[in-house]
Each structure stands twice: as structure tokens, then as C-alpha cells.
Design goal:
By secondary structure, this protein is α/β, with parallel strands linked by helices. It is built from 12 helices and 11 strands. The structure holds benzoyl-formic acid (173).
Length: about 325
Amino acid sequence: MKLLNKLAAALAVGMLFSAAPAAAQEVTLRAVTAFQPGSTVARPFERFVEKVNAEGKGLVKINLIGGPSAIPPFEIGNAVSAGVVDMAFVTTAFYSNLLPEGDALKLSDYTMQELRKNGGWELINELHNKKMNTWYLARTGDGVPFHLYVNKPVTKADLSGLTLRVTPVYRAFFEALNGNSIQTPPSEVYTTLERGVADGYGWPIQGILDLGWHEVTKARVDPGFYNVDVNVLLNLDKWKSLNDDQRAFLNKMAEWLESTNAENAAINAEEVKKQAAAGMKVYTLEGAEREKWLNTAREAGWAQVTKVAPDSAARLREKLSKN
Ligand code: 173
């Protein structure tokens, strides 16, 4: 081999070696969670972060920079959309300013595993891509209903005379039953109840005790309604900048995270016991009142999606709903 060729070969090999570490470089994703660190609703994401960091060494690392005191819950959608953070664990109700039709997720009658097969996930992801520059990586909360919690009796599907703390999850439903609504982030629920500013609030079946809210809550109304959605979103530019291995790894972790939704039935049952042990009563609606309660929840929910996002509502209902 001539000297020049040898040199060229050596250079090429050198380039290969120097290119290799760059391709395999670990990416660090800055993440925030909309829910109180350590609380039941935040826990699935915290387990996800632990697992990604344990199994993703050299590939992907998540730096969980904080909870709702780092970025206010209703600002988190903006932050992940703009790339102020790379990843967020947040419910659609907190980013309805960017994606109003996100309201439809709580109305889904299918599990995420089913939605990944029937094209529902593609539609949800497409809307997140186009309208808020995010990638819809995974959903937790499947199999967790929301409830109304109250300090005054509720014996009918009628909320006249009650002022209730809401987010976009509950507003259309409670108002359809003549309730008054006032919106607050979770951090203000305790004082809102303590001061009697509200007579009740919406929240999932999980997490009341670890937030201390049983201290200011007399009762829960059954049945629960809807399905909680708390989602892992990535900034879309960040997602696109990852290499194939990093994306495949995150998809595998997302599949694992969604498989943990199967644990929710048991967690829900534990929460019901804990609420009872804390002295909380239950008002159970039955027969026609129960039917009215559940039908109003669903129809007020879809009417709201249709009102705020007429372009997407029919497509969403077709993919997400059995009715
Ligand atoms: O704050 C809320 O009541 C709310 O909208 C919500 C949504 C998902 C999980 C927990 C709370």
C-alpha cells in the first residue's frame, strides 16, 4: 500500500472510532411532573424514571427536575411544547389551552393496549404532534375513575346549590347537573375546602389520603366516572433528535409503563378501604339516578369536546368510544 493510501485508511478508521462515541452518546432528558412528588398519582412516572435510568445507561437518562412547585401544573403543557423541558408527566386537563380536544382521553372506553391496536394512539399522537409540538409517549391512569368528593349530602344526580372545585375534567359534567364550578390546581384544594369556598371537588379514586385531603372531606359520591389520563409527553423536536436505539428503548419503557395500569384495580380497592378507615362516608347513587349520573358525565363530556374541537371530535369519538 502506498503511503498516501495507508494514511487515508488510517484516517477513515480514526473517523469511524471518533464517530462511534458520538452515536452512542447518552442523552439526558429534563423532565417535570404535574403531580406532588411521592404521591400516588405521581408514583407510576417516578417508577418509570427509576427504570429508565437503571436500564438505559449509556443511552437515555431522565433528570427529574421537579414537580408542580418547579412549573405550575397549568403551565407544563407550554413548557414541554416550547422545549423548556424535554419531557412532562401531565394530564390533558392541564394543557387544554393547547389541545382542547385532549378532553376526549378521559372518555376513552378502551385500554391503551387496545388503542395502540385500533389506531386510537395514532390519532392522539397526531393531535399532540400538530397542535402542541409533542410526542405522546405513554398514558397512565387507565382503569382509575374520577369521583366527586363532598361535604354536603348528594343523594340524586343533581348538584344544585353546590360549589365544586374543578379542572376541565369535571366542569362540563358538574355544570350540566346545575353545580357551580371554581377551578383550582391541586395545590389549592385543601385550603379551598378548609375555608368552605367549595363544598366539594373532583379527583381520582387514588391519592386522597397521601395529600391529606381526608381531613377536609366528609364523603365520596359513587359511582366514579371517566378514566384518568396522566401522560408522558416529549417535546417533538427532542423526540426527533433521538437516534433509533434511544427511541426504541423509550418505546419499550412506555410499553412497560402502560402494563402497570393493570395494577390499578387493586390500588383502587385499597384506596376505597383507606378512605373508609379515615371516616369518609359514601353516597351511592342507584337505579335511575346512577344512570343519569353516568349518562350526563359521558354526554356532557363529548358535547364539550365537540364544542371546543369540532374538527377532531367525531374522529376521536369513533376511535375512543364504544357508544
Ligand atoms: O386536578 C384534577 O382534579 C385533575 O384534573 C386530575 C387529572 C388527572 C389526575 C389527577 C387529577
